[in-house]
């Protein structure tokens, strides 16, 4: 059951990210009678309940109890920070750093749910340490992806393309 909840959390976190991105495009905010802002809020509410459930179920995990507890606590802290950023954005959405923090926190939450899903598989064992491990490349790749998301969000939110254009040259 723990593993199913972590997979559900990863899927809901992805849906929350996707609906949050679609909200930024005014022509897509309302699809018929469906308001994407409300969909995003409801998905976020369900997603914020899951870390509490995972924390309550962590004691049942035998092989990875410490990882389950620590991961659930960190996930709960990240969700609380993201909810606080989301509430702040609804009240005053003028600060790009809060928008980027909200986006990066949702990416971190998605990654944590997926990590906990993979960690909950009892058949996985830790590989022996070697000098150059594939996990080093995987961590470096994850760092690059998060950096790319942050830089893309910064350019998008600050509208740097418009700020850098030269009106005299017509560019």
Low-pLDDT sequence parts? none
- Integer average pLDDT: 79
Q: Could you give a short account of the major beta sheet? A: 2 strands, antiparallel
Q: Going across the major beta sheet, what is the strand order?
A: 1-2
Q: What class, by secondary structure content?
A: mainly alpha
* Rg, nearest Å: 19 Å
Span of the ends, CA to CA: 56 Å
Tally of strands: 2
State the share of residues found in helices, binned by percent. Answer: over 70%
Beta fraction: under 5%
Shape from CA axes? globular
Count every helix, treating DSSP H or I runs of 4 or more residues as helices.
6
- Spell out the helices and strands N to C: HEEHHHHH
What does this protein structure show overall?
The protein is mainly alpha-helical and 171 residues long. It is built from six helices and two strands; from the N terminus they run αββααααα. Strands 1-2 form a two-stranded antiparallel ribbon. Strand 1 (30-31) and strand 2 form a beta hairpin. Helix 1 runs antiparallel to helix 2 and helix 3 (65-91) runs antiparallel to helix 4. The longest helix is centred in the middle third of the chain and has 27 residues, at 65-91. The termini are far apart. The mean pLDDT is 79.
């Amino acid at each position: 059951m723990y593993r199913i909840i972590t997979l559900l959390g990863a899927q809901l976190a992805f849906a929350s990210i996707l609906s949050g991105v679609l909200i930024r495009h005014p022509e897509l905010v309302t699809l018929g009678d469906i308001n994407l802002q409300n969909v995003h809020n409801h998905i976020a509410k369900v997603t914020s309940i899951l870390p509490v459930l995972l924390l309550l179920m962590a004691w049942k995990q035998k092989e990875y109890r410490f990882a389950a507890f620590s991961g659930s606590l960190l996930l709960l802290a990240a969700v609380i920070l993201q909810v606080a950023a989301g509430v702040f954005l609804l009240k005053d959405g003028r600060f790009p750093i809060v928008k980027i923090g909200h986006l990066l926190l949702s990416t971190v939450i998605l990654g944590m749910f997926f990590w906990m899903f993979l960690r909950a598989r009892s058949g996985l064992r830790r590989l022996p340490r070697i000098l150059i491990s594939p996990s080093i490349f995987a961590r470096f790749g994850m760092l690059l992806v998060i950096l790319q998301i942050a830089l893309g969000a910064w350019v998008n939110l600050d509208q740097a393309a418009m700020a850098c254009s030269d009106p005299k040259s017509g560019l």
